[in-house]
Amino acid sequence: GDRDGNPFVTASVTREASQIAADHVLRGLERALERIGRTLTLASDDTPPSAEVTALWESFAAAEPALAAELATRSPDEPHRRVLLILARRVAATRRGDDSAQAYARPEELLEDLRAVQASLADAGAKRHAFGGVQHLIWQVETYGFHLTELEVRQHSQVHAKALAELEAGEAVSAQTEEVLEVFRAIADIQRDRGLRAAGRYVVSFTQAASDLANVHRLAHYALGDDAPVLDVVPLFETFADLQAAPGILEEAVTFPKFRERMAATGNRLEVMLGYSDSSKDVGPVAANLALYEAQEKIARWARESGIELTLFHGRGGALGRGGGPANSAILAQPPHSVDGRFKLTEQGEVIFARYGEPAIAMRHIDQVAAATLLASSPTEEERTSRAAARYAEVASIMDAASRERFFSLVKAEGFAPWFATVTPMEEIGLLALGSRPARRGLSVESLEDLRAIPWVFAWTQARINLAGWFGLGTALDAVGDEELLVEAYREWPLLRTMIDNVAMSLAKTDERIARQYLALGDRDDLAQLVLDELATTRRWVIRLTGGEGLLENKPVLQRAVQLRSPYVDALSLLQLRALRALRSAAEDPTGSGADAEQQRLLLLSVSGVAAGLQNTG
C-alpha cells in the first residue's frame, strides 16, 4: 500500500497484495472450520440445535441438495457438525470468488452464523465446545476478517497536488495522474470484496496544509464520483516545520465536510501519523525528539478539548535516528493523554525478526508494550510526566537551541553532502536489494534535501559512527552545564532518560577506531574533527549521567550483548572498508577498467552483516 516515492508500487500491486492476503486467511478459516467442525460429534438428542442453526441447514440444503445429502449421510445426527462443515464450504466459495448465494459478501455474515452456532451449543449445555473451538473461530474472524491485514495506502502530498492541477486544467492527464486515480478504484474494489477494514486508511506523506488532506477526497471523487471508497485520511507530519504546524492544520481539517462525516460515523475518532526520520535529519536527533514531544502534547490537548478520540501513529524505524530503541520506555515517555490506551507504531526491517522471529520473545515484547500502554495512560504516570516536563522546560529549551546550532554547523557546512557520500557507503547502499523505496528522491548527492532519511541513518551506522542517533547531544548537555541538575533530570524526566539511554546504546555500538578510518576516506579534516569532538563530548556526558566508568554499566545484560557481538562486526567493517577503497579506486582509474564484481559482492555482503550484527540499524 505504501507507494510514496516507490514507482513499483502501483494500483495493480495493491490489488494483488490484498488478494494474496485474502486467499491466505480464507484458506486458514476454511481449514479451521473443517477441523473444529469434525470435533463437534454431538448428537441432536443430547445437544438439540436452535431454530437459527436448523434454518442455516435448511437454507443450505435447499441451495445445494447434493452436497447437503452427502453431509447428512456422513453426519446423520450431528447438526452442529454439519453446519460448521457447511460454513467451511461457504468460505471456500468466497475464496474462489464464486458468483453464488453460498459465497459470503462480507465477514460479518460469517460472524453472525458462528455466533448462532455458539449460542445454540451454549443453550444446549455444550459450553466447552461453544466457548472453546467455536470461540477461537469467532476471534479469528473478528481479528482478520476476509482481508488478514489492513492495507494502508500512502502517497506524497505533492503527487496529489500535481494530479489535481492536471485534472482541473481539463487537459489530457499524465500516466502518473491516471495511476493516482486507479489507486482509488483499487481501494473501492478491495472494500467491496473484503470489507471496509481491508483498505480504508489513506496516509498523506508530507502533510503541510489542511488542503493536502482535502485533496484526497477530491481525487477520490474524480476517480469514482459518488461511488468513491470510504476513507480515513491520515496526515503524516514529518519535518520539523510540519510538526510545529500540525495542531493548526488538524483544527482546520476537521471542519471539512468529508472529515466531519467520517468522524461522525466512527465515534469522533481521528488518527495522526508522526514521522521520526525526516525531523531528525532536519534538525538533529535532540531537537527532533523535543519537537515530537511538543507536537504530541499540543495535538493531544487539542483533541481532548475538541472531544476527539485521538490515535497517534508513530512512524518509527529500528535505528535511533528514526525513533528506534525499546518501545516500552518510549511509550512511558509520551506526553499526557497522547496514549490514552491506544498506541500504534510501525515495525520494519531487522526489528521484525528481532522482536517477532521467536514466539517467546514476541510474546514478551507484546506484553511489555501492552503494559507500558496501560501504565502510560494512568493518572499517576501522566501527572509525573507532566510535572517533569514543566519543571525541566528551560533545560529543554537550552538543549534544543544548542543541539540544533551544533547540528547545522555540520550539515550546513559547504561541501558537506559530497563529503558524507565519500566517508560512508551511502551510494553503495542503493545497490542493495532491500528497502521500500529508492535511496533518493531523484536529485544528486550535492543536496541532502532529497536524500531519504533511511539511507542517511543507515550509512552512518555502516561507518560505525551512528551519528544520526546522537550528534548534538553532548553540546546540548554542555550548554546546560549543571551536572547535578542534569542527573536529577535524568532520574525524574522520562523523555530525557529515554533519550540518554538510547544514545548510550548507540554510542556503545560506535567504534571510534573504525570510524576514523571511514572519516579518512574524505578530504575534510575539519568536518571529521567536528564529528570526533562531538562524539567525545557526548560520550563523556552520557557516562556522567548514567553512572559508572563506561557506557551501559547501568544495563549490564545489554552491555554484555554488545561486547559479545562487536568483535565479529569489527571484522566485517574492516572487510567493508577494504572493498570500499577498492571500488573507489577502480572508479577513479583512468583506464576505465571498472568496478570489480567480487569486491562489490563483498561490500554488499558486509553491509548486510554489519546491519545484522549491530541491530537497531534500519
Strand ordering within the main sheet: 1-2-3-4-5-6
Q: What is the CATH class designation of the largest domain?
A: Alpha Beta
Overall mean confidence score, pLDDT: 90
- Determine Rg (CA atoms, Å): 28 Å
CATH architectural label of the largest domain: Alpha-Beta Barrel
Distance between the termini: 20 Å
Beta strands, count: 6
Total number of helical segments? 30
Kindly identify the CATH topology of the largest domain: TIM Barrel
> What general form does the structure show?
globular
What is the share of helical residues?
Answer: 55-70%
Largest sheet: 6 strands, parallel
Fraction in beta strands? 5-15%
Number of domains: 3
Q: Which secondary-structure class do the elements indicate? A: mainly alpha
Low-pLDDT segments, ≥5 res: none
The gist of it:
The protein has 618 residues and is mainly alpha-helical. The protein has helices at 11-39, 51-63, 65-74, 79-96, 107-123, 127-130, 133-144, 157-169, 175-194, 210-224, 240-253, 257-265, 277-283, 285-306, 327-332, 350-356, 359-376, 379-391, 393-411, 416-423, 426-429, 453-462, 467-470, 473-480, 483-492, 494-508, 512-519, 525-546, 556-588, 597-614; strands at 153-156, 201-205, 232-237, 269-275, 309-315, 344-345.
Would you give an account of this structure?
With 618 residues, this protein is mainly alpha-helical. The chain folds into three domains: 122 residues, Phosphoenolpyruvate/pyruvate domain (de novo design (two linked rop proteins)), CATH 1.20.1440; 242 residues, TIM Barrel; 161 residues, no CATH class. The chain is built from 30 helices and six strands. Strands 1-2-3-4-5-6 form a six-stranded parallel sheet. The two termini are 20 Å apart.
